[in-house]
Q: What sequence folds into this?
């Protein structure tokens, strides 16, 4: 086992749905970003970036599902489009940054 995988449960190591190991461009084995939370299961692969950074991270099926739920909550709280009752004349604020 490579040093960088020490302490990381084997179920968190990057692998696709049929168990084929996934390595990064340097040949290092990736692992689930949330492995420290425990409970990794299923495929551990690069996921579609949800945040504005556009960076994709490796997560297992289990933690990806949790992350998606979390993103749903964030999107509801901070919608991309202004809520219907948003009034730009109120407090002189704009919803869009490029205003
Ligand atoms: Zn995980």
A:
């Amino acid at each position: 086992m490579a040093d960088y995988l020490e302490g990381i449960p084997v179920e968190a190591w990057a692998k696709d749905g049929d168990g084929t190991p996934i390595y990064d461009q340097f040949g290092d084995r990736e692992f689930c970003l949330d492995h420290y939370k425990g409970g990794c299961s299923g495929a551990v692969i690069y996921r579609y970036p949800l945040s504005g950074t556009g960076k994709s991270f490796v997560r297992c099926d289990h933690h990806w599902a949790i992350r998606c739920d979390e993103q749903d909550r964030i999107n509801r709280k901070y919608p991309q489009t202004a809520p219907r009752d948003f009034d730009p004349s109120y407090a002189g604020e704009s919803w869009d940054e490029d205003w």
